[in-house]
Amino acid sequence: MPEGPASVRWPCPGAATEGEWALSSADPAHRRHKSTPCVLIVPPLFDEMNRTRHMLAGVMRLLAQAGIDSVLPDLPGCGESVQDFSAQSLNAWRAAMEAAARHFAASHVLTLRGGALVAPPALPGWELEPCSGHALLRTMLRAHTFAQRATGRRVDSAALLEQGRETGLELAGYRCGAALIAGLCGAEPAGEGRRVLSLSDLGQSAPWLRAEPAPAPALAQALVATIRADLAREDAA
């Protein structure tokens, strides 16, 4: 049986000499000599990332059982990253994912939600429920204004967004710098030719909407079945 994913260090841009962490079933030292696919998994952004971590680990285990390599890097400033979240931008995350794709010799990419905003645009693959940066901001701003109103404070979302574009803003427990807020305002998924997957097509619910992180084995199995079928069609073409 193939081994499951393991935590590895890799040389991420902006990190110290020890690099950043990734969960990987792909050995970079041997990937250059392998013809098997390697899927770069780009997680959702912000708290949606935390809620899907268990599910994505399940996807990686199922891919490994199918003989498909995969890698799930931490975005700079997130997870076990050594970098400061407040210093991040969409461009920094894009550069990190491009570097990860090169380092692990990724052949395909799987993105979830806002991960489509920072994935390497040239890689083929799959986007699960991709969303715009504006949609992510709208959801977080709405939650922030509701929380403020619960304490008796009236907050205008438009004014709050303008403040964020100028000086940064704390949203959903994340200190977002001005560059990140400004980048999200007009960001759209940039991948061309990737297959867009919806939860309704897969017959599943959204793990990123759960109150607590939890495995989603049925969704993981549906995603891997789709990936395997598409890769088999590529090989047959």
Automatic annotation (TrEMBL):
Name of the protein this chain belongs to: Uncharacterized protein
Organism for this UniProt entry: Novosphingobium pituita
Domain of life of the source: Bacteria
Gene3D superfamilies noted in UniProt: alpha/beta hydrolase
Lineage: Bacteria, Pseudomonadati, Pseudomonadota, Alphaproteobacteria, Sphingomonadales
